[in-house]
Amino acid sequence: MANTLRFGPIAVPLSQAFFVSKHAFGLVNLKPTQPGHVLVVSRRPVARLGDLSPDEVADLFVQGQRVGRAVEKLHAADGLTLCVQDGAAAGQTVPHVHLHVIPRRPGDFADNDDVYRELESRVDNDRRQPRSAADMAAEAAVMRRELGDWDDAI
Amino acid sequence: MANTLRFGPIAVPLSQAFFVSKHAFGLVNLKPTQPGHVLVVSRRPVARLGDLSPDEVADLFVQGQRVGRAVEKLHAADGLTLCVQDGAAAGQTVPHVHLHVIPRRPGDFADNDDVYRELESRVDNDRRQPRSAADMAAEAAVMRRELGDWDDAI
């Protein structure tokens, strides 16, 4: 397996991934909106959900369910926001299909919809500091322990 | 097949549905945020995504992809917002797993995140008038024509 995973134009080090399945992988965020806000990304680097095969769609969201359970448990949350911004007109910033999985608690944002405001501005928002590689690797390691090691043979 | 489909506490007439698959069905909205904003609902009436089996998750989102293609085409859109509000803490108002599929165009909301504000307030928003049963049946008929008739034997 390569030492990096492709996310749009970015080569992401494996240390920032927390699972790899047949058609998807999980990534921690450089600038999460919330602790535990992670991404599930299609392995095939296509822009739109409609570009994926049914098997690829199924794996992306079955993995999303699994990842959602893990972040909800790890972050003692009461719910999840799961969202695909499918195309630039929907706020997509990296042209590569990815599912946002965000643990939620009552009152975690002043207005409930502020979670989406943060989501839309995820890449551009200068108020949020990018995290260090060490922080991201540490979060990925916690997620890997929760989910179980992936099969390197995939 | 029964004459109604269950969506939380609501018995929805089949005239408002536009597909029924093994584990999911498609519904038009009483108060859509946008023309073409529709729902894909799990047939088993459980509240949380984590309550579904992997087969149920897979069908929900594979159907969501199919429905997304249809609404994007029918509404001449450039993208889609696909979102599950999974639990009350995430803004879920009907405690029954459902995927929002919303066709998007550049500039369709003053701020891109206003789509979510509308989504959060979908049930309570008194500014939006509920549509007539005839309007909803007409939209469902257009969607059925686009998607192909469902198999009544399901």
UniProtKB/TrEMBL annotation, chains A, B:
Site (Important for induction of apoptosis): residue numbering on this chain: 116
UniProt binding sites for substrate: 29, 85, 91-94, 100
Keyword Hydrolase: yes
Cofactor(s) of this protein: Mn(2+)
Keywords recorded for this protein, A-Z: Hydrolase, Nucleotide-binding
Molecular function as annotated in GO: bis(5'-adenosyl)-triphosphatase activity; nucleotide binding
Record's protein name: Bis(5'-adenosyl)-triphosphatase
Species of origin: Coemansia javaensis
Lineage, top ranks: Eukaryota, Fungi, Fungi incertae sedis, Zoopagomycota, Kickxellomycotina
